[in-house]
Amino acid sequence: MEFRHLGRSGLKISEITYGNWLTHGSQVENDAAVACVHAALDVGITTFDTADVYANTAAETVLGTALKGQRRESLEILTKVYFPTGPKGHNDSGLSRKHVLESIDGSLKRLGTDHVDVYQAHRWDVSTPVEETMQAFADVVRAGKALYIGVSEWTADQLRQGHALAKDLGFQLISNQPQYSALYRVIEPEVVPASRELGISQVVFSPIAQGVLTGKYTPGGAPPEGSRATDEKGGKQMISRWMRDDVLSRVQQLKSVASELQLSMAQLAVAWVLQNDNVAAAIIGASRPEQVHENVKASGVRIPAELMQRVDAALGDVVERDPARTAASAPTERPS
């Protein structure tokens, strides 16, 4: 396992990070989830990403159980706040001071720790002044409940606002967690340049495009039984944007690139995002321990420029590149 600095900070995280979105507390039984976390630990993953909204807080509880007994100082635990949790009352979402300060305490209790390494704003809150949010984060840091602050799916302008306020308040905004893969590159034109300027790293989710970049979905073919595309609990909806024959046909062309590198298609997809020097880590999920053992082999892979160009040529115009997608996909009002 290789490690990278997170933003312009002294904190290092494992470049393969284990995340439990769409799995723990919902799609995967608890025993299997714990086995996956232990597999991650066995292969050298030290960084674990979750959020209070995942399975309505259950994912944090499962992760806390799985990490119980581990040396806390050897781990980096990331969680998030914004989306509705609990009974989903009128103050149970967003980035208000009330919700942030109450949510961090709930997350710490579920995770079984007295602090998280990075506490992340899961989205931008249009209903709360950003000054209020950043002051609340500053107080979380000063209380020792989080060591650093990050965000998720913020635009370049939002990153600049948040970074300036954090600096004035005396804490570090060091990370952004966007969707990023060889198929979805909307952060490249604006978010990545702004982040380099500000000293912010990307911790990216869906590097395998919800499984599409594994090549297991074929044009005109039925999705494999038990795959995300057959999951009615949320997975099928998340993957639907890529389940088009033009996308699936182009993904099949990546097999020759993976073969030359002696990688699986999934390993190629994870290694591809790690070629971006602004990416500190790629988040992988798993429903079985063997998936962890497989995907972690992407750590340390260097893809030659010629093969990176072949990936571009193979995927062609099915790649989503419009930077406006980040803002367009953001909530326009606080969810309830």
UniProtKB/TrEMBL annotation:
CDD domains from the entry? Aldo_ket_red_shaker-like
Q: Name one Pfam family in it.
A: Aldo_ket_red
The record's similarity note reads: Belongs to the shaker potassium channel beta subunit family.
Name a single GO cellular component: cytosol
Keyword Chloroplast attributed:
no
- Residue ranges of the region described as Disordered: 216-236
Q: Which residues form the NADP-dependent oxidoreductase domain?
A: 15-314
This protein's source sits in the domain of life called Bacteria
Could you list this entry's UniProt keywords, alphabetically sorted: NADP, Oxidoreductase
The name under which this protein is listed is Aldo/keto reductase
Q: Which organism is it from?
A: Kineococcus radiotolerans (strain ATCC BAA-149 / DSM 14245 / SRS30216)
Q: Which GO terms describe its molecular function?
A: oxidoreductase activity
Is-annotated flag, keyword NADP?
yes
